[in-house]
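Q: Sequence in, structure out?
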Amino acid sequence: MRWLIVKFINLLIVLVAVTYIVASITSGPLAQIQIDKERELLQQQLKNLQGLTPEEKREWLNERLQAYIKSNGLDKPWYVLAFRFTKDLLTFKDLNATLMTTQYFHQGSRKVLYIIAERMPFSILLFTTSSVLTILFALPLALYAARRPGGVIDNTVMGWSVFSVSMPWWWLAMVFIYLFAYKWHIFAGPAAQTNWKDPIQVLNRMALPVMTVTLLSIGDSAFRMRNIFLDIFNEDFVTVARAKGVPERDVLRKHVLRASAPPIVTMVLFSIILSVVNGAIITELIFNWFGMGRLYWDAIEYNDVPVLVELTYITTLLYLLTRFLLDILYTYLDPRIKRA
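A: Exactly. Output:
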């Protein structure tokens, strides 16, 4: 239990440190965005005031704006503002986005958490489905290739891996879009009108990107798993188990798969988490997918600092939580790992 507490404390320290660095870099733009938003609200109130000269209106606006800046501490140095924004991020105090788009389900809402919450499920659906399908195909291929190195399956896996890594996948994705969406009309293309609240339309729109990502991921994933299995097959405990006459099925299930579980689980979890949070920007742009990657791109294009800051914080948080979860899983997946 002690190691678990130490890991958790380290996680918090890293999270706070990274968040403070991000807040330090963006404290100026974040403060200015709040000031600009307050100025807009005051200007709307100023329209309802009658009988004031232009000079009196300017004085009224400046007095209230300066009072707002002082009361909220927005005139403090950057390192003081960084502490404030760090606290806001750690406590999920909502920021207001500057990006405005008609695609939000919360029409007209500028709450960053609302915007992220509506996009994240689509990235989870797309990339988790692709990762699960990749593992279902890659795992048996890798295991078969590792048991028969140099065979047909092994050479196929290695060739597939080289093809997947060397081929510009975005080009292949566009070829698939042309063939399956526009020539053969099998799947919905990126330009298809989609009601993102309709599960049937979403699944239809998801079929082509899932197929593309899965086909291009199987080769590399199978090759990496094959190398893990190959190393374990050469371990002494596997040789001893076979020498004792343990059935090959038990050798695979109780020794090889269990010993290889930690690196494979690590590879799978990180690929899912990072894809879900970052949204694989190029993937979602090519397929015009309504997810986190597209949100990242829109935020960068429109210089929407609050959205970028919130996404960075959530990425860091989920990454550290995944590391923490993996540390716990290792003690159950691999009996060779012992904790004090």
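The CA atoms of residues 126 and 206 lie 7 Å apart.
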